[in-house]
Predict the 3D structure of the following.
Amino acid sequence: MQIKKYFPFCFVFLKCICPLLLPAQVKYARTYFSLEDVDISNTDKYQLVKDYIDDKNINVLRQFYLSANEGKLEDAVRFETRVDDFCKNLEESIQSIRKPNHQKIVKHIYEQVHTAFFNKFVLENSFYAIDKNGEYNCVTATALFSVFLERLKVPFTIKELPTHVYIIAYPLEEQIMMETTSPSMQYVIYDQVFKEKFIRVLKDEKVISEEDAKRQSVNDLFDKHFFASESITIKQLIGIHYFNEAVYHLRSENFKTAYEQACIANMFYPCHRTSQISYIILATLIGKNKYQSVKDVSYLEVISRFSGYYEENELLQEFERFKNLTLFEKPDPLLFDSACDYLEHKLRDGTFKDHVVLYRNYETGRSLMLKGNISKALPYLKKAYHLDSRNLNVQALYVDCLLEMLKKYPLQKAYENLKASIDEDSILINHIYIKKAYITMHYLLAEEYFEDENLVEGDKFLKGFETLYLSDTTLEFNQGDFASVYIEASGCYVRKNNYTKAREYIKRGLTLFPENERLKELLSALKK
């Protein structure tokens, strides 16, 4: 999925999403976020989320209440007192039921809670609205019912459909479905007669094979096929509340708040839909990003965790946009360096991290070179080159810097430094300017050693020069300059009266440079 191509469709896509749920896909159950990725301005909400994630001081009702930004802790505490008081009265009234059974208990709880807390079904709804004006939907009503059932010690499970959630009370016994969207539907009890008829229909339709029918009981088959929807936990139900809040804020184009809610949703309920909406919001934020702070750049690190959602080249291009913005359009080299430092430490190993490290070193080195600080620039450009030696811009700048640096050293030290660089990276010798410099250094050192009458070192460097020179005859040199080293070598042996050896050096020179007049003249003189 390409990031830039995705931006224009993000908002349109989300207008089509059901405001409640999208189908869960368990195979995508991955948490992409941690609390440090989210700026939760409400300290009460932050602490509640942190406590729940750390499995400390868990208060489910407050979690539901503060899932919307409009929910306040003091209101949640007051509402909790109201729920506690109502629960005590409810517990007493349950005891007064004549010949109480599970069906009567669920019916009583359902009717009492619905009458006391719910006034109007609203499709887009936050949990705190139950307290404020009695508005609810299937997600928020299920949440409140789950609070009451848990406190009344009534066993239950929460079921999730693609666009709906509901409760099954006494799931191991009567399996009483509590419908939370409409008071007229109330609750449904599936007796043995209903179960047997349902299984018979499935057998007739060949949904259940004769083999399965013999191997499994009616109750087991009923549970498997009738209650095929996913069961979810209270924690996941909290995640659905945050998911819905993210959708609401995204529709209002309140992208940063939507991002906060989506991050928390994914932490509570890691699944395909919470991952997808988080990615959509991230892509939208990045598309609108003006990169004015390290926080803005942190979105690139977060979205890099979503492998499989985007093409990596798109992420690299987005980093290029950030680089061009902060270094050229609106120069802020300090922000560029700080952001790169953040990304370098946060990113996992991979292409994107290598890209960030490469351009951080390249741009830092380039900036130092422009300021004339060659010695400080070289280590940065060297690292950039080692990361991507085939990048022509990186290669050219590193070579320029390296050659400029060598000019600052005496000839022998310059040679040793260049040789060390070539030994470290043999590909470097293929660069035309490096090869020419290396050849020239061998020639100059050979001449220098012969001038000092150091014949062994002189001959060693001269042979090195000849080998390198013959390895690439396409290089352009002022060949007349090279004759002097052979003349100097020959002179060393003339001074020792070894004319045979003196002539050998002149002949070696003529082998490489047969048209050189100085060498021809000297050979003619030595033959006399």
About this structure: The chain has a mean pLDDT of 86. The chain has 25 helices and seven strands.
